[in-house]
Amino acid sequence: MLVLGGGPAGCAAATLLARRAHRVALVRPFTPPGAGLAESIPPSARRVLEELGALEAVDDAGFHPNRGNGVWGAGGPLRREEFASDTEGFHTDRASLESVLVSVAEAAGVHVHHSTTARSAERNEDEWIVACSGESGGGELSAPWVVDATGRHGFLARPDRVPDRSTTTLALVRRWRKPGGWSDDLEHHTLVESYERGWAWSLPLSPELRCVTAMIDQRHTNAAGLELDGLLDAELDRTIHVGATRHGAEPVGSAWACPASLYTSDRFARRGLLLAGEAGSSIDPLSSFGVKKALSSGWLAGIAAHTALVDPTMADAAVDFFDRREREVYHRYRAISAGFFEEGAEAYGTEFWTARAEAARTFSDDVALGERDPDRLGTDVPKAAILAAFEELKARERLSASRGRSVTAVERAAIDGHRIVLKEHLATDAYPEGLRFWRGVDLFLLVEVAPKHAEVPDGWTAYNAVAPPVTLPDYLTALATAFAAGLLEHE
Ligand SMILES: Cc1cc2nc3c(=O)[nH]c(=O)nc-3n(C[C@H](O)[C@H](O)[C@H](O)COP(=O)(O)OP(=O)(O)OC[C@H]3O[C@@H](n4cnc5c(N)ncnc54)[C@H](O)[C@@H]3O)c2cc1C
């Protein structure tokens, strides 16, 4: 098994595979691109880090805690988004994160080719042969499956790439140090502010060090004759709050620029090749989900490759499953950022915002016409329908449920442990692709158990007696989902 790239996606895929006893080689250049970039990682990434056995190492690395966001959208007041008090995310620079994750991969048994770059690749009938160059002279590596996790570079991913041509985003980045720190109650928060020409954010790497970035449109920026320090200062001077974090602070080094435009892929996987993380698609960093998305994608690439290696008859199902998940994840993040762009377009009416709002709208239309409703996200049931079903459940004194009239069983791929397997799903006319698990609740069992109980807590107790226990809120959500999807009906 060969993994190209030692970022979050590559390390996640390699670690998972090594822990499943596969021989794994990982190739990484000495310095990752944008090594000085700061990353804000939300607490929700802890789950996938834990799954990979990397959480302890990341906790021990002593990264600056991430406790939430402070957002000034469209000239509005500060909106604080606080993470739950018992959980923290991390603020780290990309190089430090990569070095922790690579150490975890090595400890799991991955053979890491440090300071090595993949230069060319050929596929014969059963395997890839990848020519590499590096400090130790390079050479050829071969493997039946390759995970391309080379990020934006997209070593094998390029031919499948679909860029968003209507927008081009450039990130201008610089660090500032303030002796004594900023001494406000946002020292653990990422600060985000939109302004007429783009958006800016300021991310703390320690109490005294912040990384400040402006995201602008490359095509609407006349950088000729301006050096990057001046260009970034000119952008930050247009903001009210984020630019002010420079006051009383000293710049550390010069500003630099890196590309941040969006793209997705026509196809995220085929037999022998999986495009993980940013090799396959890039989302707006405004969501601060890039690292989490890359870790989850690498984890899933590892599961897909593991499945194909131990059971070649499942290779096509694993490839399709990975491809579909990656597509859905990109759609989901586009949908999340669409609201931010609409808000900016309405407030500023400038090309930066109107072009992005329009691109998000066009993308949603294409998806709805060509594939599926982006609000539904594959087999997921829309949140509004679940809430409506929940309200109806609350309004009823007693539950009198029966199995939905159009319910049939269909076989679909699903993750079970660390394998992709075919499992029976419940399909209805509205959800022909089928549903199986929701919030950890097995809908197959729920549809058996719920009609036998007039009180919801009794149904929950009965469910927990025959399945791995779930919480009452998760059971309730799954129950509402089953009604919303037509798996259950009120009598
Ligand atoms: C300005 C900016 C700010 C961002 N801020 C955040 C943030 O705050 N929070 C967040 O979660 N995300 C953020 N992101 C996104 C985040 O950085 C990426 O989503 C994430 O790093 C993707 O991980 P990856 O493993 O897919 O790719 P990468 O991290 O890019 O890793 C790719 C790896 O492949 C290696 N590589 C490249 N070419 C080759 C080759 N030919 N052979 C071998 N190896 C190769 C590289 O050296 C690197 O190790 C930001 C992005 C930008 C542009």
Give short descriptive properties of this protein:
binds flavin-adenine dinucleotide, FAD/NAD(P)-binding domain, globular, 491 residues, D-Amino Acid Oxidase, Chain A, domain 2, 12 helices, 7-stranded mixed beta sheet, alpha+beta, 3 domains, 6-stranded mixed beta sheet
Ordered list of secondary-structure elements with their pairings:
Elements: E1 2-4, H1 8-19, E2 25-27, E3 38-41, H2 46-51, H3 55-60, E4 64-66, E5 68-72, E6 79-82, E7 89-93, H4 94-107, E8 111-113, E9 116-123, E10 128-134, E11 139-143, E12 146-148, E13 161-163, E14 169-177, E15 189-195, E16 198-206, E17 209-217, H5 228-236, E18 250-259, E19 263-265, E20 269-270, E21 273-275, H6 290-310, H7 315-348, H8 351-370, H9 383-395, E22 401-403, E23 408-416, E24 419-427, E25 437-438, E26 441-442, H10 443-449, H11 456-466, H12 472-484, E27 488-490
Parallel strand pairs: 1-2, 1-12, 2-8, 5-15, 12-21
Antiparallel strand pairs: 3-7, 4-7, 5-6, 9-10, 10-11, 13-19, 14-17, 14-18, 15-16, 16-17, 20-21, 22-27, 23-24, 25-26
Flavin-adenine dinucleotide binds next to helix 1, strand 3, strand 9 and helix 6.
Question: Which molecules are bound besides the chains?
Answer: flavin-adenine dinucleotide
Structural class: alpha+beta
> Which spans have pLDDT < 50 for at least 5 consecutive residues?
367-379
Under the CATH scheme, which architecture of the largest domain would be assigned? Answer: 3-Layer(bba) Sandwich
Into which percentage range does the β-strand content fall? Answer: 25-35%
Helix content: 25-40%
User: What is the 3D form?
Assistant: globular
Major sheet: arrangement of strands? 6-5-15-16-17-14-18
CATH homology group of the largest domain: FAD/NAD(P)-binding domain
Largest sheet: 7 strands, mixed
What is the tally of beta strands?
27
Whole-number total of structural domains: 3
Mind telling me the CATH class of the largest domain? Alpha Beta
CATH T-level fold name of the largest domain: FAD/NAD(P)-binding domain
Total count of helical runs of at least 4 residues: 12
Overall residue-averaged pLDDT value: 90
Radius of gyration: 24 Å
